[in-house]
Design the sequence.
């Protein structure tokens, strides 16, 4: 599971004294109703849109309990890493998605 954590998403911010990992755990609990264990850091990306600057911190994560349910989103969809390039990503997400694809390719070569 990969989740992209923004410093400010839909007006949400990292709470004072909260780490990025703690924020991710809280946000997943609030938005998807499940618990996660945060894994390896993937990437940090900053993207400037016309009206806002978005800073994304991405981590790999595993679901530790519960099942994700889209409480604040229209739907939730699991896709294979090979299909990630077929999706319509926001410009701020593209560098991170590229990194995830590269990580998967390296992992695949290591297994062979």
Sequence:
């Amino acid at each position: 599971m990969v989740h992209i954590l923004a410093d400010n998403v839909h007006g949400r911010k990292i709470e004072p004294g909260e780490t990025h990992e703690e924020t991710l755990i809280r946000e997943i609990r609030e938005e998807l109703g499940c618990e996660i264990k945060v894994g390896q850091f993937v990437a940090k990306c900053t993207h400037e849109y016309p009206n806002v600057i978005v800073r994304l911190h991405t981590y790999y994560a595993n679901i530790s309990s519960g099942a994700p349910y889209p409480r604040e989103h229209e739907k939730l969809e699991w896709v294979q890493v090979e299909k990630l390039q077929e999706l319509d990503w926001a410009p701020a997400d593209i560098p991170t998605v590229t990194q995830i694809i590269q990580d998967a390719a390296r992992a695949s070569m290591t297994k062979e």
About this structure: The longest strand covers residues 35-48. The helical segments are 20-32, 94-111.
